[in-house]
Amino acid sequence: MLVLPGGGFYAVATDLEGTEICDWVTQQGMTCVMLKYRTPQVWPKENGQNQRPKVLLGLEDAQHAMSLLRQQASTYGIDPHKIGVIGFSAGAYLAANISNTEERTYAPTDAADHVSPRPDFAIIAYTARLWDSSKGKNNLELQPWVKISPKAPPTLFIHAMDDQVDDVRHAMAYALALNNAGVPVDMRLYAKGEHAFGMRPTADPITTEWPGQMKQWLHNIGVL
Q: What range does the domain containing 18 cover?
C-alpha cells in the first residue's frame, strides 16, 4: 500500500498520516511505502477560490512511485495487481487523481514510467479540493479540474461530518461521481471526528473504528 500523507501542499505529515499508518498496514501483513512528495506547492487563488496548478508536483511523484512499485513488484515480493493507495487530506486529493488518470505531465525518466500508475484500490480519508463550493451547499458538482474515469479502482471513503477544514461534501461529490461512472464505492461517515485524526485515538468513535472498517473492506474486495 502506498501512503500519501496530508499537509495542505505546504508540508507532508510524515508521522500522523505516514509512518503511523504504515505501522498498522504492516501489522496486517501488507507491504507499506510512504511517499514524501514534493512540497510546498501553493495553489493560486482566483476570486477567493483555490485553483489547481497545471503541473501538480505531488501527483507526478505519486504516479512515479506507484509505477515503480508495480515495475519492481517481484523485487519487493508483492502482487503487482494488488497495489493500492491511501491518502489523507491533500494526500487524498492526490490519491483521487492517480485513480482517474494515467496521463503524466513529465517526460518518462525510467522504465517504470511506462507502467500504469493507477492503483488497484483506493482509500480516501477526509479529502479536499474536489467539490465546487461556489455552487452552494445543496449542489454536489465537482471542481472543473476533477476528471472521473470508469477505470478508477474500488474506493473507500472515511470522513467526519463535523470536519471544518475539508467539508464532507468533497467526499460525497467525488463518491457520487465515481458511482455514476460504475466504480464500486463504499463510504464510512461519522458524526464527529473533525479533521486530521489519523489513527490516534480520541473520544470520537471514528478514530478507533475506521481502521477495522478499512480492514473489513480490504477483505471484501479480496486484497486481504
A: 2-220
**Which residue in 213, 211, 193 sits closest to 203, CA to CA?**
193
Cell numbers standing for residue 93: 486529493
| Count of domains forming the chain | 1
* Cβ–Cβ under 8 Å, residues 121 and 154: yes
Q: For every one of its 224 residues, what pLDDT tens digit does the chain have, with 9 covering 90 and above? A: 999 999 999 999 999 999 999 999 999 999 999 999 999 999 998 888 889 999 999 999 999 999 999 999 999 999 999 999 999 999 999 999 999 999 999 999 999 999 999 999 999 999 999 999 999 999 999 999 999 999 999 999 999 999 999 999 999 999 999 999 999 999 999 999 999 999 999 999 999 999 999 999 999 999 99
Q: CB neighbours of 114 closer than 8 A, spacing ≥ 6?
A: 67, 108
**CATH code assigned at 123:** 3.40.50.1820
